[in-house]
TrEMBL record:
Gene3D superfamilies: 3.10.330.10, Ubiquitin fusion degradation protein UFD1, N-terminal domain (2.40.40.50). Residues 187-245, 313-333 are annotated as: Disordered. It comes from Fistulina hepatica ATCC 64428. Residues 213-222, 230-241 have a biased composition (Polar residues). This is UFD1-domain-containing protein.
Length: 333
């Protein structure tokens, strides 16, 4: 029967695809597949491994540096493996460094979350369609890798933030893969506009509350409604003023009404010597102020049925002299 894929385990010298003879190909430079020598094809065929073949790539000098890939071609020189440049960076490899390649099995991916490493990725009109086309050059995705794709001669780095099923890597061949994008690195979400305030009666009636006439705190309307300052035509001959309210309203019963205006009569002149006091301050009337201002006479209590028409006038009579009284006493004796 088929052998275990891990039986393919070999060391090679790692070189980037730029070292391949011939013209550089985008599907090789910006993909997820490697190029192995023909002897590797013979070895895989002898092991009778089921395809498509998947591999784990590791840096022998750095156990934390690893990724997964498929194979594109078997045209490399013997003992040499060519990798996309982003894989070289992921594995922290320089040209000619040793690399360990081991066969593996990866589960089919169902979900992947990617994060663009530049905000310019947002300028792509249909990023999911672009990514779908780019992923055709990949066989596997590994969580934590920053893969590179090319679009319109621009290279974009994409961080593999999350994969499902979870684990070291997933296969993206012949699978319905759901793709989600996180906000790109450096992206600042624009501030949301504040919701408009709820409409007021003034806004419904189109009354401009900000406009006011000089010397008056009463608002005026730029559209003809609201209160208006008194004009020469609204002052009568005797000095009375009239403020016209042209707005509309409703009674509690729902009947439509129109404003009839507010009348301001000119105060009358006060004669000299009058007890009338003119003041702009409001006066609060209490029992104490009444007693201070006006001396109210005492209450007159009368028996029931008796009428009172005033007191009878009694003329003043001075007292008699005392000397006359003494003379009268002596004469009587």
């Amino acid at each position: 029967g088929p052998s275990n894929p891990s039986e393919f385990d070999d060391y090679f010298k790692a070189y980037s695809v730029a070292m391949l003879p011939g013209k550089e190909r985008d599907n090789v430079s910006y993909g997820g597949k490697i190029i192995l020598p023909p002897s590797s094809l013979a070895r895989l065929s002898a092991l009778d491994l089921d395809g498509p073949w998947m591999f784990q790539l590791r840096n022998p000098a750095n156990s934390a540096a690893s990724t997964h890939a498929g194979v594109l071609e078997f045209i490399a020189e013997e003992g040499v493996c060519h990798l996309p440049y982003w894989m070289m960076k992921t594995l922290r490899l320089n040209e000619g460094d040793p690399i360990r390649i081991t066969g593996c099995e990866l589960r089919k991916g169902k979900f992947v979350k990617l994060q663009a490493q530049t905000v310019h990725f947002l300028e792509i009109s249909d990023p999911k369609a672009v990514l779908e086309q780019a992923l055709r050059n990949f066989s596997a995705l590994t969580q934590g890798d920053i893969i590179e794709i090319s679009y319109n001669s621009i290279v974009f780095g994409l961080l593999v933030m999350e994969t499902q099923p979870g684990g070291e890597g997933i296969s993206v061949l012949d699978t319905d893969l759901e793709v989600d994008f996180a906000a790109p690195v450096g992206y600042v979400e624009p501030e949301r506009p504040k919701p408009p305030p709820p409409p007021t009666m003034a806004s419904k009636m189109k009354i401009d509350l900000d406009a006011s006439t000089p010397g008056s705190s009463r608002p005026t309307s730029s559209l003809g409604g609201g209160f208006k300052a008194p004009t020469s035509s609204s002052v009568s001959k005797n000095g009375d003023q009239w403020e016209s309210f042209k707005g509309r309203g409703e009674t509690l019963a729902g009947r439509k009404t129109k404003g009839k205006g507010i009348s301001h009569k000119k105060p009358q002149e006060v004669a000299e010597g009058s007890l009338i006091r003119r003041t702009e301050k409001h006066k609060i009337v209490t029992n104490n102020t009444l007693e201070e201002d006006i001396k109210v006479p005492a209450v007159l209590h009368l028996p029931f049925g008796q009428l009172f028409f005033g007191f009878r006038h009694v003329p003043y009579q001075p007292p008699e002299p005392k000397e006359d009284a003494e003379d009268d006493v002596s004469s009587a004796q």
